[in-house]
Design a protein that fits this description.
Layout lengths: L1 H4 L3 H11 L4 H10 L1 H7 L2 E2 L2 E2 L25 H10 L1 H4 L2 H14 L9
Antiparallel strand pairs: 1-2
Length: 114
């Protein structure tokens, strides 16, 4: 990490594990079992930095998902995402987040009954 990010290694590491949806404890647990898996998850493979996996610096993965911190991802929000960015909507990470938001918000999520 020092080789790839120099002085900003600790900041970049924190940004990338956060962007990957991991806490520090989770990242440490993964690293203890498979350091290579964690490096791949945060975009480091070998001596190269894979910038297609996660962005550099304080940039969010996608501005569309910036609502993550504000907690306003409801059924309507996800439906709008599906209509405007199908690729992102059907991405596995987005679908996992949708299920997590649905469980956390309960009836406030606003998903219509079948």
């Amino acid at each position: 990490m020092k080789k790839a990010w120099a002085d900003k290694a600790s900041i970049e590491y924190k940004n990338r594990i956060t962007a990957a949806g991991l806490s520090s404890d989770m990242a440490e647990a993964i690293a203890s079992k498979s350091p290579e898996a964690l490096l791949k998850l945060i975009g480091l493979t070998g001596n190269k930095v894979d910038t297609t996996i996660l962005p550099k610096g304080d940039v969010t993965i996608n501005p569309t998902l910036a609502a993550a911190s504000s907690g306003d991802r409801t059924w309507t929000w996800y439906e709008n995402l599906r209509k405007t960015n199908r690729k992102l909507y059907f991405d596995a990470k987005t679908q996992r987040q949708l299920m997590k938001d649905r469980a956390e918000l309960g009836p406030r999520f606003g998903m219509p009954a079948n």
